[in-house]
Amino acid sequence: MKFFIDTANLAQIKEAQDLGILDGVTTNPSLMAKEGIKGKAAVEQHYKTICEIVPNGDISAEVVSTDFDTIIKEGKVLAALHKNIIVKVPMIKDGVKAIKWFTDNGIATNCTLVFSAGQAILAAKAGAKYVSPFIGRIDDSGWDGMELIHQIRQIYDIQGYKTEILAASIRYPNHIIKCAEAGANVCTCPLDSILGLLKHPLTDIGLAKFLEDAKKFA
Ligand code: G3P
Questions:
Q1: Is the dihedral of CA 191, 197, 201, 207 positive or negative?
Q2: Is 168 in the pocket of ligand 1 (CB under 6 A)?
Q3: Which among 169, 171, 193 is the best mutation to test ligand 1's pocket, defined by most ligand atoms within 8 Å of the CB?
Q4: Sign for the pseudo-dihedral over CA of 203, 199, 145, 152
């Protein structure tokens, strides 16, 4: 399973990249706004900087229009920023049409805001490179986000769809483990959830004892 970081915060992206396990970055308009990025030029520059920090990863850049012609125009500009940009397109009617157009024209896409298996089928049929089910938001609304990952995995395997399942809206480390078990191809996570995987009290207790004993033969 690939690890993406789900943030537009450059310090966090650098920290995850330094860990050596990062395969890409996802952003969205809310994450960009959180970093105080304002204006088209600043947004485009921010994407370029992210691509420089993670030179070998896929970097999702989201369109903010909802009609076919403008999505295409916007997506072309984003895709031209860097070879690793993946154009992130919402799961709406014109979005599906646009994903198909991008696929036919050699531009890779990430279909976002996916909350059902039916939506995931449409994304795959349109040729999206990635489909992003938002598991945390499904959990938040009283449903089971992980069930959707299992369902999409099963459908994609039966049907031979090549679209990669990019589990998004991760809330805690156990989500990442469950995604790996469910066969997600990618998990996009906040830095805290990635670092949370490191933690185990027995590791801390064991290390303290080893370091203490090491003093005996130093
Ligand atoms: O990038 C999309 C997704 O990961 C959003 O997560 O935490 O806002 O539900 P969240």
A1: negative
A2: yes
A3: 169
A4: negative
**pLDDT one-digit tens code per residue, 149-169:** 999 999 999 999 999 999 999
Output the residue whose Cα is nearest ligand 1's atom 3.
Answer: 169
The pLDDT assigned to 190 comes to: 97
CA distance linking residue 179 with residue 177, whole number of Å: 5
- Segment 169-185, tens digit of pLDDT: 999 999 999 999 999 99
- pTM as predicted: 0.96
| Residue in the block written with tokens 């994304």 | 123
**Sequence-distant (≥ 6) Cβ neighbours of residue 68 within 8 angstroms:** 94, 97, 98, 101
Active site residue 88: yes
Task: Count the neighbouring beta carbons within 10 Å of the beta carbon of residue 20.
Answer: 6
Amino acid at 199: K
Q: Do the Cβ atoms of 82 and 51 come closer than 8 Å?
A: yes
Q: Measured from the CB, is residue 156 less than 6 Å from ligand 1?
A: no
> 134 alpha carbon to ligand 1 midpoint, in Å?
7
Q: Which candidate in 14, 40, 76, 88 is catalytic?
A: 88
